[in-house]
Design goal:
about 25% strand; 3-stranded antiparallel β-sheet; Spore Coat Polysaccharide Biosynthesis Protein SpsA, Chain A; 7-stranded mixed β-sheet; single chain
């Protein structure tokens, strides 16, 4: 069963709310809404509140600007327990619309997947190992949250990682948990208009005869 955590910001788009109503909730035990709090505070509150309840095995983070596939929650509910942290395929608002799926570099920075890798993975939907994912629509197995090292903040913003989700993924992997991207779950990312896979591919480099360097993995 799933617990849904929603870090919201006072109001939500009609399109987001409409999609939430149409999702299959048969695998959802309950939901936790935190309204308007600073993101790390909101995430800490969601995790603490979720762990106070029994009966679920995955916490799904759903942010207010994500339009997710209607069958996404059903798919997540059937993940194997060995898939500890699993993100979706969604894209930054700004050109060149890179995905919130990352490979960690030696200097601890995170580089997004290339457009070529996005296309490869989208055309062969699967669950691919990566180093970090954005938390727009991401599930975390309960085991990770219950056994997190208490000496390490679960969510923190700092100059090295720049965001709470990259911080979490980095320290989760250091503790032995794995991180994946499920490219069968392609989400639209709301701004004034929805940004999605088509925008990413339209922004791909097009220098003839010079292939983009891509991180590639096929299960």
């Amino acid at each position: 069963m799933l617990m849904i955590g929603m870090p919201l910001y006072h109001q939500v788009p009609v399109s987001w709310f409409s999609r939430w109503l149409t999702l299959d909730h048969s695998q959802v035990l309950g939901s936790i809404v935190v309204d308007g709090a600073y993101i790390t505070t909101a995430m800490d509150t969601i995790v603490r509140s979720a762990l106070a309840h029994d009966g679920w095995d995955r916490l799904v983070i759903l942010e207010h600007d994500m339009i997710v596939p209607t069958d996404a929650l059903t798919r997540i509910a059937h993940y194997d327990p060995s898939l500890h942290v699993v993100g979706s395929l969604y894209f930054r608002h700004d050109h060149p619309f890179t995905p919130h799926v990352y490979i960690e570099q030696p200097d601890l920075s995170f580089g997004p997947l290339t457009h070529a890798t996005v296309r490869e993975w989208a055309e062969a939907p699967d669950i691919y190992p990566v180093d970090a994912v954005g938390f727009g629509f991401t599930s975390i197995h309960r085991e990770v949250l219950e056994n997190w090292d208490p000496d390490i903040p679960m969510f923190q913003l700092d100059a090295t990682f720049g965001s709470h989700d990259l911080w979490f993924c980095h320290h989760a992997r250091k503790q032995g948990w794995n991180v994946f991207a499920d490219t069968a779950i392609r989400c639209d990312h709301l701004t004034q208009t929805a940004v999605g896979y088509a925008d990413n591919q339209a922004a791909a480099p097009s220098v003839e005869g010079v292939p983009a360097v891509a991180f590639s993995y096929r299960r």
